[in-house]
């Protein structure tokens, strides 16, 4: 079986062409997966916008209302770094719905992948670093509230610490947070995940893969989650404009294989989100395609 891929055409909301966030990457990724033969048209599943009651399991009503109405303060707006236009507000609610859907599909099929998500710098009452709502945190709270799962793990391998996710679940034993990130990267002030692995600048493939090669399987054995939410951010890549690690594309692909294989060989369902990545669109979208390649291959290898 091919894993379900969650996508909505509205994900790539228009931004001013001078804006540094690569908003077109979602649409281009959707195209690339088809061009590379990694996805059939009927493999894509479209989400609905997250209902407000889901969002409010994590976010304060004041915050999401102010965002939707364009009433955030100038400072709040600047901290997010994205303009609250109507298309952007719509895609933000859709992307949260998309991660919840991806998590549900992962429980059903063993593996599912989202062509968005991983906005891990969004706190209950404010956004930060291109992140408005914390999609993985909302998905975790929705599934716990519905008693679909008893124990979750968030594995965040984006180059930036999953600071808001760590803070949101600091007192929630049912959500185990793991962040492997570059110590010197944003955010300056780190939070405490259940397990943090801060890495030095310039780390390359072999050292990176040996750092996570024992860690991830051991944590899965200890925690035995009912579901893993995997942030496969590609900003640890050596050419990324914001990240300071030095992985190659092969290194990222092997990282994704390692995580997915570790989950699937333990029969732990896994939902992937694409996380961050900052470069020219073509190489960037190629990099985001890697986790879908790993997922397609691992689904086959594990007989899903
Ligand atoms: Zn990042």
Overall pLDDT score: 97
List of distinct ligands in this structure: zinc ion
Distance between the termini: 6 Å
Determine Rg (CA atoms, Å).
17 Å
Structural class: alpha/beta
Query: Could you please say which CATH topology applies here?
Result: Arginase, Chain A
CATH architecture: 3-Layer(aba) Sandwich
Main beta sheet:
8 strands, parallel
CATH superfamily: Histone deacetylase domain
How does the overall form come out from the CA principal axes?
globular
Along the chain, the helix and strand elements come as EHEHHHHEHEHEEHEHEH
Multimerization status = single chain
In short:
The protein is α/β, with parallel strands linked by helices and 304 residues long. The chain is built from 10 helices and 8 strands.
Describe the structure in your own words.
By secondary structure, the protein is α/β, with parallel strands linked by helices. The chain is 42% helix and 12% strand. It has ten helices and eight strands. The chain has an eight-stranded parallel β-sheet with strand order 2-1-3-8-7-4-5-6, sandwiched between helices. Helix 9 links the parallel strand 7 and strand 8. The longest helix has 24 residues, at 86-109. It is globular and about 50 Å long. 51% of the residues are buried. Bound molecules: zinc ion. Residues 158-160, 233, 235, 275-276 line the site of zinc ion.
